[in-house]
Amino acid sequence: xxxxxxxxxxxxxxxxxxTLAEIxxxxxxxxxxxxxxxxxxxxxTLLELVGGLGSPTAGRLSVAGQSGNAGRLAGCxxxxxxxxLLPWYSALDNAGLALVNQGRSxxxxxxxxxxxxxxxxxxxxxxxRPEELSGGMRQRxxxxxxxxxxxxxxxxxxxxxxxxxxxxxxxQEWLAPALAGSGATVLLVSHDVEEALYLADRVAVLSPRPxxxxxxxxxxxxxxxxxxxxxxxxxxxxxxQELLALLAARGENK
Length: 254
Prior knowledge:
Blueprint: E1 5-14, E2 17-27, E3 32-36, H1 43-50, E4 58-63, H2 69-75, E5 76-79, H3 91-95, H4 97-101, H5 106-117, H6 135-148, E6 153-157, H7 165-182, E7 185-189, H8 193-199, E8 202-206, E9 213-218, H9 227-231, H10 234-249
Parallel strand pairs: 3-7, 3-8, 5-6, 6-7
Antiparallel strand pairs: 1-2, 1-4, 8-9
């Protein structure tokens, strides 16, 4: 199940503080849309609005044709920067938590989550507590929790930022086919230009607050070969330099 996400003249303010201004984009069903920009430019706020956790001050925003907060919330699953696993739950129960919150029985939730553990390299760790898992494994559990919700739109807010560089690169290579296999429409916020380019179909650049989309660059999703080969190609490096120049021109020191 997939959905379109659309924003038209989207503006948002916290009182007198304007966070987003005149945002326009449309994400096609099944597309991965990356979002980069300087700290404080409104990237996470934009995800919150898409996910129905707040209302635009002006403009239009819809998910699968639903423009109200409740309708957008019903269509989205959120994966935050921190894995937010419950320490008293097993990996399997953490992975199935979204279904329990939807009213499914714990048995049903466990069965639905367990089907994905082998595919995501977690077979044999179903009973492990979060403190027994590596950072990368914890993020995989969190991703399964996001997927099993069955929502057509996934909102990924710096999902790999808490990991070290080597683990992060490994997880990027794992996440690319996992997202493709999900069939979901994805909005991915990242401070890492290389990560955004590697995972996304398109990458939007936001200006400093109030955030505006100042450019959109084609991503590398779908390019074949190992991650190291993709990110070291001439075309990838040209797009990375283009993004870095756009960010530098608008005050982002990367």
